[in-house]
Structure formats: structure tokens, C-alpha cells
């Protein structure tokens, strides 16, 4: 739950979230990232703060009626790190995708019920539930919603996060010895069956 100032009434309908990306220089370990994250989360109106020590970035989702980018930047600097607001984050598409494993479905009626329940969550743009694989793929606006809130939705079925676009990373592998299309399929097919892997 976001931290709101005392005595302030929170109107969920009219207070839309926004996000900002900061470059944070000087972090050397996860303890540094933890200090920055903790300081940001103490501010009023912060919904989520994720600090990536490897890429020197802090992604913050907040309510602009309670806090602004300059206050967040100053807070990071008060902890002892150099912070700069990255303007290009304003133009980044705010759509994220998460994949959720759903246990207990027995028929298409189950999957349709879950799909309908997900689609009515404010911020969800698209939801597809596959009965055969027990996986729901949900497209949502990260300025309004995060995957934790999606998992909290009570649909009557057990849900477990597989992956989210928020933590998606890419790797390139060089594979020697490929001689045919069959060789490619022998590599790609098992990889695609792994939870959270997209080829």
C-alpha cells in the first residue's frame, strides 16, 4: 500500500500514478540499492521503487499529487548517491506483461471466469488464460497497476507469478553445429517449454 500523508483522503479514481526513471551513480552493492529503495519508499505517495544496482537505475511509480520527481531525486542524493532524472522514460510505453501460473482449472468455463475477472481490474488492457498450459498472460499499464495487485485479485484459483516484463532480460547464445531446421527445432522447442522463457 502506498504511503500517504496523515490526514489526506486518498481518492483511487482521481489519483493516477506515474513513473520516473533515475540514473543513480555511486552504488556498488545490493546494500547500496537497498538503502536507496528504503529512502524512496519512506516518501508519501510512493507506490513502488525498484533499484537496479547493475544498471545504476531506479524506477519509481508514484502519485504526483503527493510527491514529485525533484523530491525523489533529492532523497536519493540525501542517501549519498548522485541522481539524475532520465527524461526519456516519459516517452516509454507503460504497458507491461506478466505471466501467471493458475492451478485448479478444470474446463473452459474456469478459464473464461478468470479472464473476465482479470479484465475488470483497473489498468488491465488484455488478459488471456490458456487452460491447457495453466498460464494467464496479462497486459497492464504499469502507471496504474503492478503485478502484485494482479496476484492479489481473488478469482477462487491459486495463482503464482511465472515472469513479468519488469524483470525480463535477454541473452544471446552462439550455438555451433547447427546443420538443419531440425537442429534449430531441437534447441528452440525445449527452451520454449521452460517457464518464463520466450524465444
Automatic annotation (TrEMBL):
Pfam families: HMA
Domain HMA as annotated: residue spans: 18-84, 96-160
Protein's name in the database: HMA domain-containing protein
SUPFAM superfamilies in the cross-refs: HMA, heavy metal-associated domain
Chief localization: membrane
Family listed: Belongs to the cation transport ATPase (P-type) (TC 3.A.3) family. Type IB subfamily.
Location of the protein in the cell: Membrane
Amino acid at each position: 500500500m502506498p504511503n500517504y500523508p496523515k490526514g489526506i483522503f486518498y481518492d483511487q479514481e482521481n489519483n493516477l500514478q506515474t513513473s520516473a526513471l533515475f540514473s543513480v551513480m555511486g552504488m556498488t552493492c545490493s546494500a547500496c540499492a537497498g538503502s536507496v529503495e528504503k529512502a524512496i519508499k519512506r516518501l508519501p505517495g510512493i507506490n513502488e521503487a525498484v533499484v537496479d544496482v547493475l544498471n545504476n537505475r531506479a524506477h519509481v511509480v508514484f502519485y504526483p499529487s503527493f510527491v514529485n520527481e525533484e523530491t525523489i531525486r533529492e532523497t536519493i542524493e540525501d542517501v549519498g548517491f548522485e541522481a539524475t532524472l532520465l527524461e526519456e522514460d516519459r516517452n516509454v510505453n507503460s504497458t507491461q506483461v506478466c505471466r501467471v501460473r493458475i492451478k485448479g482449472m478444470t474446463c473452459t468455463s474456469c478459464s473464461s471466469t478468470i479472464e473476465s475477472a482479470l479484465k475488470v481490474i483497473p489498468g488491465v488492457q488484455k488478459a488471456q488464460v490458456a487452460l491447457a498450459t495453466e498460464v494467464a498472460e496479462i497486459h497492464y499499464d504499469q502507471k496504474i497497476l503492478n503485478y502484485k495487485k494482479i496476484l492479489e485479485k481473488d478469482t477462487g484459483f491459486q495463482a503464482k507469478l511465472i515472469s513479468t516484463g519488469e524483470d525480463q532480460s535477454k541473452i544471446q547464445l552462439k550455438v555451433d553445429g547447427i546443420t538443419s531446421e531440425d537442429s534449430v527445432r531441437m534447441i528452440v522447442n525445449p527452451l520454449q517449454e521452460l517457464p518464463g522463457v520466450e524465444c
